[in-house]
Amino acid sequence: MDQNKFNERIQDLVQEAEQKPVRRVKKEKPQLKESIYSLRIDELQDWLKENGEKPFRAGQIYEWLYDKRVKTFDEMSNLSKSLREKLKENFALTTLSTIIKQESKDGTIKFLFQLQDGYSIETVLMRHDYGNSVCVTTQVGCRIGCTFCASTLGGLKRHLLAGEIVEQVVKVQKELDEAGERVSHIVIMGIGEPFDNYDAMMNFLKVINNDKGLNIGARHITVSTSGIVPKIYKFADEELQINFAVSLHAPNQEARQKLMPIARAYKLDELLEAVRYYTKKTGRRVSFEYGLMSGENDSVEVAEELADLIKGIKCHVNLIPINYVPERDYVRTSRSSIFAFEKTLKKRGINVTIRREQGADIAAACGQLRAQERQDEIK
Ligand code: SAH
């Protein structure tokens, strides 16, 4: 992509978010470049052809980017000098810089990265017995407005480009390289609504899933949406093997729209219809996320109502003890109420788990670190 087009695109993304551009523009880098990580392998092949190069070079470049994980274009030693120069002119190899890296006692690492235009985003590495998972951000801020969530404070600033999402994973992988470990799982549950930035999210998926890319298996990737119904149909029709989660948080329309304004646009019955379509089309189950908030949505009666609501849907419920966000009023449900809620669902034959908490000592919930560190961005 040429430089002017790229600058226009970044500008469009900011305007689309209908917010003022951020004040923290890095002065020494007025010329923003497209991240090379934005390109799917077929797009890279096209770019090579357009620039008088052989398309098979795309495989070599991918190997340098995703297998050898080089830090400069000059290290791509099997490419001609002139191709390396062309790459340097047109693309950036790093568009994220680390502002903060916080390590929790349990091994969770939280990163605050700065983008080329000065905005900041969060990425979290979580250690599990089954592998290392990275939670990625898809937007700077969010316009969904869930009343319990820190990511939405200050609204949406702009969408991320695919490369900015891919690079989050590459950055974390480079950290793990020192220990000889690998990123094995991805959850798209950081800041932002992935289905509100659908095309970039899909390109991200294609890059990390490609066997010449990071080669992360579809079944090791989870995407979560607040419930943008038309995109759920679109996603179902992609027929991917990716795990799919829907943030439900309430057992009826009235309660849900109080917590999640998006429910006014896409009603609960429409959402569940789309979810049923997804399970039929893909043959896969859906995971409902349910954040427990004291006195709000956590009683045994509510659990019964929830069981009635999702009866017959091929699903699993993931109960999330809500993280306290200082700007918000909600308080986490007590342990005994969490277990009572779980027991009620189990009795009704619903698959249910309680999300294990990680990184509680480092503000690892969505948007919390950015909210703490970048007061100017959340106003
Ligand atoms: N926008 C997408 C994905 C990002 S959030 C979505 O809404 O699904 C990932 C999950 O964390 C969602 O289920 C979201 O509702 C939940 N979440 C948001 N704020 C939270 C908080 N304070 N404590 C616990 N979970 C929270």
Automatic annotation (TrEMBL):
Co-factor: note: Binds 1 [4Fe-4S] cluster. The cluster is coordinated with 3 cysteines and an exchangeable S-adenosyl-L-methionine.
InterPro entries (UniProt xref): Aldolase_TIM, Methyltransferase_A, RlmN_N, RNA_MTrfase_RlmN, rRNA_lsu_MTrfase_RlmN/Cfr, rSAM, rSAM_sf
Species classification: Bacteria, Bacillati, Bacillota, Bacilli, Bacillales
Other observations noted: Reaction proceeds by a ping-pong mechanism involving intermediate methylation of a conserved cysteine residue.
Residues that coordinate or bind [4Fe-4S] cluster: 142, 146, 149
Name of the coding gene: rlmN
Reaction(s) catalysed (UniProt annotation): adenosine(2503) in 23S rRNA + 2 reduced [2Fe-2S]-[ferredoxin] + 2 S-adenosyl-L-methionine = 2-methyladenosine(2503) in 23S rRNA + 5'-deoxyadenosine + L-methionine + 2 oxidized [2Fe-2S]-[ferredoxin] + S-adenosyl-L-homocysteine; adenosine(37) in tRNA + 2 reduced [2Fe-2S]-[ferredoxin] + 2 S-adenosyl-L-methionine = 2-methyladenosine(37) in tRNA + 5'-deoxyadenosine + L-methionine + 2 oxidized [2Fe-2S]-[ferredoxin] + S-adenosyl-L-homocysteine
Function: Specifically methylates position 2 of adenine 2503 in 23S rRNA and position 2 of adenine 37 in tRNAs.
Chief location of this protein within or outside the cell: cytoplasm
Protein name listed in UniProt: Probable dual-specificity RNA methyltransferase RlmN
Location in the cell: Cytoplasm
Class of enzymatic activity (EC top level): transferase
Family recorded in the similarity comment: Belongs to the radical SAM superfamily. RlmN family.
Protein's UniProt keywords contain Disulfide bond: yes
Sequence ranges assigned to domain Radical SAM core in this UniProt record: 128-361
Annotated TM spans: none
Sorted UniProt keywords: 4Fe-4S, Cytoplasm, Disulfide bond, Iron, Iron-sulfur, Metal-binding, Methyltransferase, rRNA processing, S-adenosyl-L-methionine, Transferase, tRNA processing
CDD domains to which the protein is assigned, alphabetical: Radical_SAM
Cofactor: [4Fe-4S] cluster
Binding site for S-adenosyl-L-methionine: 192-193, 224, 247-249, 323
One Pfam family per UniProt: Radical_SAM
Enzyme Commission number(s) of this protein: 2.1.1.192
Organism: Ureibacillus galli
Gene3D superfamilies: 1.10.150.530, Aldolase class I (3.20.20.70)
